[in-house]
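Before surveying the methods themselves, let us examine one representative protein, pairing a chain with its fold in token form.
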Amino acid sequence: MRVAVVGPGGIARRHLDFLSRRQDVEVVGLLSRDERRAAAAAQRWGGRGYTNLEVFLDEQRPDAVWICTPPPAHEAVEMALIERDIPFFVEKPLDADCRTAERVAAAVEQSGLMTAVGYHWRGLDTIPRVAEALRENPAQMILGRWLTVTPPPAWWSDPAQGGGQMVEQATHLIDLARFLAGEGKVVAALATPPYGNPGVAGATAALVRYDSGAIGAFTASHLLPRSTEASLVLICERLRIEIRQDGVVFDSGDGSEEILTGENPYHVEDRAFLDALRAGDPTRVLCDYADALRSHQLACSIRESSIP
């Protein structure tokens, strides 16, 4: 399978580390606005470096494309791929706002194109065990916490480009909660003033009510000198389940059991997309664009509800 990556930066390396090692995958193009970066990426991962998407698509005609650019650059790439009927995997967040993502979602639905979105927490190999436990003992309360340092990219601190911390980071927790507990609606949200330049809210807190009857509380802050926590805690009857990227802890009160994450979740989501493409079966994708849009809308709703 011939694949390409648009935006060969930090997050793209997590995918290229997997794709470049596959015997059944050929990386044929690395695209960047910076010619030197494109050439350096191609030298490291294979294929050719490009700065022009249309030229690349006309010359290489890939079977699938991974989009790893900052959010504002997603739409132009996605629309070009939809026009050419080329399946794509796009990193979250879908965009800094909902209107843009909704336009793309409508175009994807009309085209029937296979897509995947990088909500890699769904790819944690501990999640099937959590889902099994919840089938008989559903969550009554969901607590999401994302407490960290301000990321270095300039676009991250610009709400018009990154959407803010709930949309760009805590969206992983919001999505996983949807995946495990069903749809929810924002009841209330609060945020502190912007922090950084130009700045997004330094801290945000939100309450969510789920259709299942469960209640959720999500908190996020990027005021700290280092990252301290990213977790989703599920409170069930006589059971506490804590999900982290490195493992899951089940605490029944009589004792606890910790299950460590085994496989890289980025590799899990990439393999699922490749398998779906080969089988022509979109149900094999961990999270498609339409599903991701609902998580994105919920995250955007938290941001909008927190604005005084």
Observations:
- The first helix runs from residue 10 to 19.
- The chain has a mean pLDDT of 96.
